[in-house]
User: Fold these one by one.
Assistant:
Number 1:
Amino acid sequence: MKLKKVVELLDANILNDCYSQDTEVLSACGCDLMSDVLAFVKDQALLLTGLVNPQVVRTAEMMDMKAIVFVRGKTPGEEIIELANEAGIAVLSTEHPLYHSCGVLYSEGLYK
Amino acid sequence: MNSFKVQYTIDGEDFSVAGEASRKLKKVLQSLGVDPQIIRKATVAMYEGEINMVIHADGGVIDAEITPEKIHLFLRDKGPGIPDIALAMTEGFSTASDNVRELGFGAGMGLPNMEKYTDYMNIITEIGVGTTIEMIVNTSLS
């Protein structure tokens, strides 16, 4: 699924310059526990989380994830955006809660 | 590629910078042209270890040696030690504080993940003295 479609489906805001509408995500992980994310082995993944701290970006970077969606209207601070910029990870935010966001993406074809 | 050694000092005071050493190792491995999947295994294992050092042991030192055959990691801390390694290796078991859990860690997946992503892991621990964890990730895809 293209990131452009993720943005449309989640009514998401784009929070940094690493976003490219043609970036392809092949899988997604919805989770607030970063150790569970680190146990998740998928390529070109999207992380959806309600957790907002620098470890979210570091976790996504270690897992070579393409983008992070902060759910429930959470807005990361400058430090987090800067870390994501350094890592080349797109940062999005949506007002939708985690369960809803995952459900929408799953129903639209992001099954893995 | 000849042997390449690097050492990182882990600050135990500030959880917000935990993971910086793992990010730096990732960049080193990328610059050495290591396969991305191997890099992911090694850096995730080190990241979990680094987080543990900050959460449980007030920091420590990580030595990494990269050879054409393997990535060799030594994580040394002067923390409280691990009373029961088998229990600590159980998925879901954790002694982390609620504060750490609120930050997204302390789910009891750290040591299991470290073992999962490495080809060899050995833990040497002594109560009240500290813990040394040795991990090897083979870089040869064969």
Number 2:
Amino acid sequence: MDLSVTSREESGRTIVEVSGEIDVYTAPTLRERLNELVGAGHHHLVVDMEGVEFLDSTGLGVLVGGLKRVRSHDGSLHLVCQREKILKVFRITGLTKVFPIHDTVADAIAASASVDGAGAAS
Amino acid sequence: MPTIALRFSPLAEHVRTARLVAVSVARRAGFEEGQLDEIRIAIGEACARAVGRTTVDGLVDMHLCDDGARLEVVVVERGADGAVLPVTGVGEDPLALALLQGMADDVSVAGSTVPADGPREGVRMAWSLQEAAPVTTPGFGSAPQQRQRT
């Protein structure tokens, strides 16, 4: 399954909806999209991974890179994921301590707003 | 004797093909869905690593051996002359290494036990088939243990 990346604005956050497989072949597409968004001034991202079927270390590296980029602009990157097989990848690599992971986009937006300041300009 | 051997050019798009082949073999061997997810991820990591380290004129080999109780998979890199390349830098990517070690029952690198007719180099991963719990049918005693199938 190919990778699909779309984005929209919601409550002052940029929701990046990702679906399909994030692997060594498709991860550059996600990296490019995240870089474009951050470069365009979107520094508070919520990456919705509910549609992600597969995630490997290359994909994790892209997400870590995205987190570093938004933090360099005092931004934030929250994840939305309930799929056990994807959560397991974050747990095994210890990245559950690095990324805030939420059950829903609404939860992620609320958490992002409470930490970064409600409605903070990105 | 390996059940399946797959050889591919070191291109990132072929890693998905390798994952599909490995999972197909594992599913046919009787592994349940949770183990298939682990196999899918570990094979992806091993093959992605090999693709990243093999020169464009080289090849990546994946050997899968199912002996009925255990699935062994060996991923090796070959140079332009077809010679098996030594495995290096497995520990360089901590995320990939964590996934390899976390998803396979056993992981070892180069020179360790491999399928008898398989390669002597490479990254070797193994998974043991989990036996299903015995099913007791009233009046018929215990049914023999069977492989879990999805």
